[in-house]
Amino acid sequence: MQDNLLDQLETWHEEDEFDQIVEAIMEIPEEDRDYALNSHLGRAMNNLKRYDEAIAIFKKIEQEGQDDPLWQYRIGIAYYYTEQFGKAKRAFKAADRLAPDDEDTLEFLEALEDTEDEEPEEPKAKKQKPVQAPPAKRKALPVNTDTALDLADFWEDSEQADEQYRLDPPTDEQIASVEDELVFKLPAFYIQMMKEHNGGVPRKRYFPVGDPDSSEYIEVTGLLGIGRDKSHSLCGERGSRARVIHEDYPEFGVIIGECPDENEVVMLDYRPSGNDGEPEVIHVAKENGNKITYLAPSFEAFVRGLKDSAEASPNE
């Protein structure tokens, strides 16, 4: 059965059906994925330009991959397109040592030859959209952890909100499965909220941009819950993974909130912390070249910084 699956994965690769590869492997529990399956999954993530996720997958099999030129080459690609040029150069050099004179490897090494003070020129056959640098941070909103957040009054329940967003409270197994599919560890505060009310529309929907007293706001029309059954859930048809794949949102995090404009979202940004750390919260405007606006240092700070429409009105 394993051999048949590997043959099918290779066929999909040749046909550029990379989404099919990801979906098939993601259906297999993580603990049952061997080196070959993770290698296929990481390669597919690279081809889908989901380089941060590819790195996380390749790191899981790092010990076995050290002497595999394909592992070195593939993680080198992921490092290259996330602008981690020192790590990319080391990986490609290892690939060249293990399998000398491979043309693709040498092409990357040539592009990386003089990268101390400037960015490399991309190999012509492998041009990809550059990864945007993290946005400049404004002063972080204070988080008063001594004040309990009234989650019972946080949500604006309605038939429409229940239909689009709300799911049953997630089990620990469901949380682990969703995190595995997203390749990111969800914030503890977010998980706590979702165990009490799994997705929905917040009463306070306005977050100040610039400083806590700003009259400029972004509006959040819904927060995605943990699951797959609702279209507006993390792994649903209109969830984070689907929109990153099909709508070209950044691959370095998780879409957690929706905005009135369907081309704008609120995301968890894992670039500063790594996939298992505490992410920051940003706003992404796709029609403006994926313009990123920093919002808050954590999901808890974001939630506590939300204001209602009356508070959001500019002072007269």
TrEMBL record:
Spans annotated as Disordered: 114-140
Pfam families reported in the protein's UniProt record: SMI1_KNR4
SMART domains in UniProt: SMI1_KNR4 (SM00860)
TPR repeat residues: 69-102
Highest taxon of the lineage: Bacteria
Stretches assigned to the Knr4/Smi1-like domain: 169-305
Listed InterPro entries: Knr4/Smi1-like_dom (IPR018958), Knr4/Smi1-like_sf (IPR037883), TPR-like_helical_dom_sf (IPR011990), TPR_rpt (IPR019734)
Keywords: TPR repeat
Name under which the protein is recorded: Cell wall assembly protein
Species of origin: Paenibacillus stellifer
